[in-house]
Amino acid sequence: MITTFITAGCLALAAILELLNLGFGGGWEEGVYYSVHMLTILCLFIGAAGTILLGRHLLIHSELLDSIASQLVTKKEPKLSDEETLAAEKKQFEYFSWLPSKLKKQYRQVIIETLDGFCCSNSELQKQLRELKIQKQLSEKQKRNTEAIIYSIRDAVVVVDESERVLMANESAGRIFNFDFNKALRKHITEVIKEDKKQFIKLLRASKQDKARATKQEIVFSNDDQEPKTFNCIVSCVKDEKQQVCGVVAILHDISREKEVSQMKNDFVSHVSHELKTPLASITAYSELLAEGEADDEETRKEFYSIIQNQAQRLNRLIEDILNVSRIESGLIKVKKEPVSLTIIIQQQLQMIKSYAEEKNITVIGQEPIVFDQVYADKDMISQVIVNLLSNAVKYTPSGGTVKIETEVDEIGNIARVSVTDTGVGIPQEEIDHVFDKFYRVKANESKAKGTGLGLNLVKQIIEKMHNGRVFVRSKQNQGSTFGFELTLSKAQTPEPVNKM
Amino acid sequence: MSERKVLVVDDEIHIVHVVAIKLRNNGFDVITAENGSQAYELACKEKPDIIVADYQMPVMNGLELTEKIRQNEATKNIPVVMLTARSFSIEEDIRKKLQISQCLSKPFSPKELLRSIEDTLYQTVVQKD
Q1: Less Cβ around it within 10 Å: N or C end of chain A?
Q2: What is the pLDDT of residue B68?
Q3: For chain A, what is the mean pLDDT?
Q4: A396 and B CB contact within 8 Å
Q5: pLDDT tens across A204-263, in order?
Q6: Quick one: CA dihedral B32, B36, B37, B41, positive or negative?
Q7: Which site among A289, A309, A395 would you substitute to test the B interface, given the most B Cβ atoms closer than 10 Å to its Cβ?
Q8: For the stretch A233-244, what's the b/e string if a residue is b when 16 or more beta carbons lie within 10 angstroms of its beta carbon?
Q9: Does the beta carbon of A309 lie under 8 angstroms from any beta carbon of chain B?
Q10: At CA A227, angle to CA A225 and CA A228, rounded to 5?
């Protein structure tokens, strides 16, 4: 401020003196003239000095402003330096020692304040940035968790956008539709799903058109080498804020097994009704003939009575089978376990099966009774098991064949093993694992003999569920089968009287 | 009048037996078979006037048998009466297509079966005339 006044004053003074000088002439005025000139020059010098100082002042001012400006510009991204670097930069500005102290003070103040401001807002920003990073990590983690869940569920999930590009497809979808789910992203749905499964694409399109929330439909797919599978397909539209369809989500749930079981049940009911009605038909027909007097002689009548009785028994057995299986399944039957000899039970049942076997011309071979084959079991149930195994063997063996029943004792394993071997129709390899299933009938043998598909299931339930034993089967198609079971030997072994058969 | 010939086929021998007795007692000549395939061969050979067949049989069931009978020039006009143990009767359109004259469900009354056979044969005769 002062510099400015002095400079301005001197320059003004110099101007005035010059003007005054013009009024002075020669003579004694010459001396004044020259002094005034000297004064003027002095004033001019001072004015010049002042101007230089001011000029420098302005220069420094503008340089510093530039510097601050550029610093401000670069510091627009305060993340670039941390607190330390900022502090160091602050110090830099303190070394402007050639500046007049007042200037220095002024600008130092401005710079420090600015840098301080940056420091503050920088640390604020740093904090916010850290928080944002954490949130981002959290939400990415959530996204990954959700994706992991979707990718791992057994149901197939396929999501497409409004232009039918795949947004998401999980592993199950890849398996069902036969594509690599890792590479399906953003591909058009028709690239990913082949011709033979076109109906799925139709469903997606129909749903999009109807803008439906959720439509359910059953579809059947078959992959060449496998059994056809049925899926419950639920398709939903995803709408945006403007209620426009922006995507379609489809979920496929495998209901093949349910369908299978349902079909088996239907088959069973149909089969059972046939099985029940057949003996009943005989009973009705023969009774009617007897009633109408159409049986001419005593022998015919006796024959008719016998048939009626047999068929009634057959009906009864069937009903018992069905009920037994149901009861055992629902746990209603009480098991009465006691030490029983397998040999004795086998002997009894061999007697019972004799007439049926003779009818079919089948040889049934027992074995020399063995001692110490006692097991802790329910006598009636084990009898039932052996009846079922023996009658199956005879039933599925063509005329002239053989059925053999053997018992062996494995003392080390502490088990008794009963095997029934026949030279019958056998079971194909792919069906062996199913023979003990409820209602299961071997397809190849369905025509060869009648059955409900319950006999073996009953055997399995009795041996495994009620006696903790094990059932087994070995078979070769057209050669024969061996069915059997193992039970733990009873601890209290009493020697059985050996009976020759 | 020559005896009318009936072919009876059912995989259940007792049924075949009782039907045969009933029909023979009422003036019919009866030939029998155990399954559809046997029945077809017999039908071609003996040309019965009517066939009584069970629906559910191994190898070839009643419907398959009827279809084959209808396809053969020699046997296509033989009327068929079907016995079935199914809980529901055979669909109307299948009955019409295969020209099954009557359907009886098991258990059946032999008297009714006789009446069905008589009716069917009468219809056939009437049609011929």
Answers
A1: N
A2: 92
A3: 82
A4: no
A5: 888 888 877 778 888 888 777 777 888 899 998 888 888 888 888 999 999 988 888 888
A6: positive
A7: A289
A8: bbbbbbeeeeee
A9: no
A10: 110
Per-residue pLDDT of chain B in tens (129 residues, 90 and over written 9) = 467 899 999 988 899 999 999 999 999 999 999 888 999 999 999 999 999 999 888 778 888 999 999 999 888 889 999 998 875 667 888 888 888 888 998 999 999 999 999 999 998 888 776
CATH class of A259-329: mainly alpha
Q: Could you confirm whether domain A338-488 is CATH 3.30.565.10? A: yes
Residues facing A467 on adjacent strands: none
Which amino acid makes up residue A223? Answer: N
Residues of B in contact with A294 (CB under 8 A): 21-22, 25
Enumerate chain B positions whose Cβ falls within 8 A of a Cβ in A: 12, 14-15, 18-19, 21-22, 25, 56, 58-59, 85-87, 106-111
Locate the chain B residue with the closest alpha carbon to A280.
Answer: B107
User: What CATH number is attached to the domain comprising B73?
Assistant: 3.40.50.2300
Task: Give the separation between CA A115 and CA A401, rounded to whole angstroms.
Answer: 107
Residue-range definition of the domain harbouring residue B90? 4-128
Q: Say if CB A320 and CB B56 are below 8 A apart.
A: no
Q: What is the pTM of this model?
A: 0.55
Q: Min CA distance, B107 vs chain A (Å)?
A: 4
Distance in angstroms (rounded) separating the CA atoms of residues A311 and A282: 7
Question: At the topology level of CATH, where does A153-254 sit?
Answer: Beta-Lactamase (3.30.450)
Provide the number of structural domains found in chain B: 1
- What does the pLDDT look like over B5-33, one tens digit per residue? 999 999 888 999 999 999 999 999 999 99
Give the tens place of pLDDT for each residue, A38-57: 888 888 888 888 888 878 77
